[in-house]
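Q: My labmate handed me this sequence with no annotations at all. I'd like to see what the chain might look like in three dimensions before we decide whether it's worth expressing. Could you predict it?
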Amino acid sequence: MSAAGGVSRAVERAVERHCDCMQIFSSSPRVWKHSWHAPEEIRAFRDGVRRHRISPVVVHGSYLLNLASNRRGLWRRSVRLLSETLRWSCALGAEFVVFHAGHFPEGDLAGGLNRVAKALRQVSGRRREGIALAMEMTAGGGNSVGGNLGHFKAILDRVGWNPRVMIWMDTAHAFAAGFDFREAEGVSRLAREIDSAVGLERLAGVHLNDSRSPLGSRLDRHENLGAGLIGKRGIRLVLRNKAFRKIPFILETPGFDLKGPDLRNMNIAMRLAR
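A: Here is what I predict for the chain of 274 residues:
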């Protein structure tokens, strides 16, 4: 949900779309300086979430983050920005901060995973009760961390399997990474591989998107539900798979009016879930 005009407006937009969970950016995702939220805006946001029983609240981290970078300055800026995002997310009463871990230099996967783990040890070591960091699965292009589930296992090994470090799935990313949701076996295979790599209990939630990119293309291109290459059958199979029944689904679709997730996408999701 957009937080334009004040973060509390995001709750109003979520209610209009009949949401029972929601995701926001707590600041612009394309700038390094985090926005300042007035105390009254924070109170209004928390009151609205509580009044309308919206849970969980998810905050998406900046697209600029690169915790896998070998450039010391960029890595430090990324750690600071993630820490600041976590601080604001706690103030807003969010339960998860979802973020893309970043990209490692060609031929330096091990180093990139080490740097992500070091960043997470620093950020998660600061006392933040009731909120978890969730690394997002990626489509796998451009040496991105998260295109392979083994990346997450390696990072968790390095952070001592901290219970506050989790993962987050995206259907468009997973499809582009090679998981074919158009058949039940493709959905089940992903569930098995998540369970084998990190445990299904580490899966915090799902971004529910159709895909404009072909299976295995490694290209991240979201589409409205039923209008992409996953299709309604694939979306239905994900929603109805028992491995994912008790976790939140967040729409990141472009919207049929190109203004972001809309009531039409929500209605399609609810119909397919039934």
